[in-house]
Design goal:
The chain contains eleven helices and 16 strands. It is an alpha/beta fold. Bound molecules: flavin-adenine dinucleotide (FAD). InterPro entries: Auxin_biosynth/cation_transpt (IPR050982), FAD/NAD-bd_sf (IPR036188).
Length: 450
């Protein structure tokens, strides 16, 4: 560690947090990764059974690969689609164990607050921009304060799933019946098989996670008689997008939607579309889910629910940071129009970097899955490009920060619904406003509970 600057704190040791650390090290900047879980890739481990729709070629970061290659790592087959467990075992865990990173990651370290030292959100203070950040970190030893010259929040959204309730709030009864409701993609075919075999499950959501859950339930139905699948959408079926199919630049992602659509069309899955959930109760030992359809209010029975309706960012520990977020998407105002599903259904987002992620709080960034706020189309490759650009900026290399070094695969979906930006237009290099490089602040060693 140099003595001329504090580390850059990275919140979260997921794929993007670890890539951020590798990118910073490549620029000679000291990273400190703070991970709430007991091991790196904590959120990915929760979906370890899910096979990714992007192959290895799109899932690793260049600076991370360089650290791994220096230790004799054999890169996985670029055409193979890893599961979550493979992403951890073959990439994230070896990366975290490299000599370069292993002393720079703290697990069991949950960030509970971020602020400028001695300055609340309201206080301008003299030289706010040159004042170090202070992070409050919950560890087994209690709350610790750690100082940093900059902060990259890569804490993802896995811990904040959207609820089933149609208004964006948990439906009345949703919390009370949480024991029968899974959020995300449960391990239907293995660890949690008994909970779904021979039962009726109501899946809520229209994205790739919901499709994965429906496909797993359909496979289970082929083996376990009596397994029934209800699938609730917010929109009428004609307005549901099942993805770009054969036009999708990621073949597996396209096939996922096509297979899910075929299940609906064959009647193997009962689509409730629209079905806007108002209440969840219990009747005769099963869930009674009341919602609105075109013809009026109906109540359907289900043994279990799987809510795969997307995620939202947890902003609770950022109350003292000056943030500018789009009021709908909860991404930065520069990024939101590129990804807002209200403006376009095109999942093809042009690559972007530091300029689009910059916050009013200089030196603070939200990157990775969380940077997309409530928008559903994030790709790891996008996150890697984000942190490459941020690291370049923090190192004062403004030209590299502005340069786009990524071409994303097309989704094959681009049906504009309103007057919208040309979402399928060829990628343009983002133009960053000219800004000064961040001012390094003096070092102060953080404490250690060990
Ligand atoms: C089921 C599923 C399948 C996906 N498949 C693909 C795919 O095929 N291709 C693709 O490109 N993308 C895919 N994604 C989207 C995205 O790339 C992944 O979600 C990816 O894991 C995001 O990486 P991340 O580092 O931003 O966040 P995460 O992987 O969520 O990592 C965030 C980390 O931060 C930690 N954390 C959270 N809060 C705190 C805190 N307060 N303090 C400290 N640490 C904290 C978490 O424990 C976690 O380890 C998929 C997502 C899901 C959910």
């Amino acid at each position: 560690m140099t003595t001329s600057s504090l580390p850059v704190a990275i919140i979260g040791a997921g794929p993007v947090g670890l890539a951020a650390a590798a990118q910073l090290l490549a620029r000679g900047i000291e990273p400190l990764v703070l991970e709430a879980g007991p091991a790196v890739g904590h959120a990915v481990r929760a979906w370890s059974h899910v096979r990714m729709f992007s192959p290895w070629a799109f899932n690793t970061d260049a600076a991370a690969r360089a650290l791994l290659a220096a230790e004799g790592w054999t890169a996985p087959d670029p055409g193979h689609y890893p599961t979550g467990v493979e992403l951890v075992a073959d990439y994230l865990a070896p990366l975290a164990a490299t000599a370069a990173l292993r002393g720079r990651i703290r697990t069991g370290a949950k960030v509970s607050g971020v602020a400028r030292r001695d300055l609340g959100r309201l206080h301008d203070g003299a030289g706010r921009e040159a004042t170090p950040f202070v992070l409050h970190v919950e560890t087994c030893c209690g709350t610790e304060a750690i100082e940093a010259r900059a902060v990259i929040d890569c804490s993802g959204t896995w811990n904040a799933p959207n609820p089933a309730g149609s208004h964006g709030m948990p439906a009345p009864g949703e919390a009370r019946h949480a024991g029968r409701i899974a959020y995300g993609i449960p391990d239907i075919l293995d660890a949690e098989r008994m909970a779904y075999a021979g039962r009726t499950t109501l899946v809520v959501g229209a994205g790739h996670s919901a499709m994965n859950a429906v496909l797993d339930l359909a496979e289970l139905a082929g083996e376990a008689p009596g397994t029934r699948i209800l699938w609730a959408f917010r929109r009428p079926l004609g307005a549901v997008s099942f993805g770009g199919g054969a036009r999708d630049g990621l073949a597996r992602r396209g096939a996922l939607g096509a297979r899910a659509q075929a299940l609906v069309e064959s009647g193997a899955v009962t689509a409730l579309a629209p079905f806007l959930i108002d209440r969840i109760a219990e009747r005769d030992g099963a869930l009674a889910v009341t919602g609105r359809q075109a013809a009026g209010t109906v109540t359907v029975g289900a043994d279990r629910m799987i809510v795969a309706a997307g995620f939202r960012p947890d902003l609770s520990f950022l109350r003292e940071v000056r943030l500018a977020l789009d009021p709908a998407v909860e991404a930065t105002p520069a990024l939101a129009p590129l990804i807002d599903p209200n403006l376009h259904s095109c999942g093809t987002v042009r690559p972007h970097g530091e300029a689009e992620l910059r916050q009013p709080e200089a030196g603070f960034y939200i990157a990775g899955m969380k940077s997309y706020g409530r928008a559903p189309t994030f790709l790891l490759a996008t996150g890697h490009e984000q942190v490459r650009s941020i690291a370049a900026f923090l190192a004062g290399d403004l030209a590299a920060a502005r340069r786009v070094e990524l071409v994303l695969p097309e989704t094959g979906v681009c049906s504009t619904e309103r007057a919208a930006p040309a979402c399928c237009a060829p990628a343009e290099a983002p133009v960053a406003a000219p800004v000064a490089a961040p001012v390094p602040v003096p070092v102060k060693a953080g404490g250690c509970c060990g």
